[in-house]
Amino acid sequence: MPHTKLRRLVTISVAVTLGATALAACGSSDDNDSEADSGPVSLTYWSWTPGMDKVADLWNKGQGKKDRITVTVKKQASGDTLVTKILTAHKAKKAPDLVQAEYQALPTLVSNDALADIAGDVDGVKDKFADGVWQQTTLGSDAVYAIPQDSGPMMFYYRQDLFKKYGLEVPQTWDQFAETARALKKKSPETDLTTFSANDSGLFAGLAQQAGAKWWTTEGQKWKVGIDDAATQKVADFWGGLVKEGAIDNQPMYTPAWNKALNTGKQIAWVSAVWAPGTLTTAAPDTKGKWAMAPLPQWSQGDSVTGSWGGSSTAVTTDSKHKSAAAKFAAWLNTDPKALTALAKEGGIYPAATTAQTSDAFTEPPAFFSNQTDFYTQAADIAKTTAPSAWGPNVNVAYTTFNDAFGSAAKNKSDFGAALKTMQGETVADLKKQGFEVAE
């Protein structure tokens, strides 16, 4: 899909995040690019990654000094807070040159004409990323709206010692996962394999992604919402069934109770992403060296595909007067070996660039997983199998509805399928309210 068509299709009201009047998207990165042919260039980058200023200093003292391009990092909050700030600044034509943006936020930013198409400035970059990751920055079009920075390939984490104690095998399929949960309940009724949590919609989205879901697609000039598609129904029915029968817990993550369950061995597994060791370090400090990581269970034996939970990119704004220079820095930041090593060291990120995932920065396992020396070797192999995602212009509405509908269903052990229909209906209704044409 040409990027001009994409912009028309995803033109969205800023009311989604700002409560303001709708803005019509127009233009692209090559419109009115006033970058000077000579002379120094100063760029501003809004980012929340820890230590990003130190990484930018590498550029300023190296390639940036040679190219006379200086980058200044301005620390920001993440998530919807930053999206709102970017759109507010863009409305005043004062957005920074570069912004860090989560993948699911890109359609909203593109629809408001806040991000430039930098395809012409980043030739040869695509091959450095897994297809499923790169696709998130193009939105299925010929344009390139950002360069992938970090990724969150999903994996299965389990207490190695307790799996051995209870005589459990690491599940390779979701059917085996369910049988493992039931077997554990028979051997230790007070112990749960894991929990279904409705307070982080990104986890469910990643599981649906692995199953082949495409939540937002287009038909001509219309949006089509597929949240209630067959793939997601399968995921919802699977987890809802386990909750209803009591084979797993139904409590939310990131609570004191959840931390205690992990730390004491009341819960012995967690479906998470590559960043999980950092969370476990805080949530379950007494279990260091007792966990192991394996690929996510598959829907069919022999398959090899994972979803993603989290991740962000570096984008150039349409307000920048130096788009080519900004694109050059964005490409360097997320593909240069020294930059990626610094990002891993200073920011603690798992880089999206496949070459960086096997670099010197990842030769040693996370300290919490010192018992699994091949942690990052496995992680790199898993990351290559990331399935493509399909984000739309009102992810925030879908996610909020998930938290409410699935939160109630999990608590009451009621029908997850009904919760999914609610999520679908609310998302479609919001698109129509914003003036989009929606294919039924």
UniProtKB/TrEMBL annotation:
Signal sequence, start to end: 1-24
Key words, A-Z: Cell membrane, Lipoprotein, Membrane, Palmitate, Signal, Sugar transport, Transport
Superkingdom of origin: Bacteria
Organism expressing this protein natively: Streptomyces umbrinus
UniProt KW Repeat keyword: no
Pfam families linked to this entry: SBP_bac_1
Gene3D superfamilies assigned to the protein according to its UniProt record, in alphabetical order: Periplasmic binding protein-like II
This protein's record includes keyword Membrane: yes
Name of the protein described by the UniProt record: Multiple sugar transport system substrate-binding protein
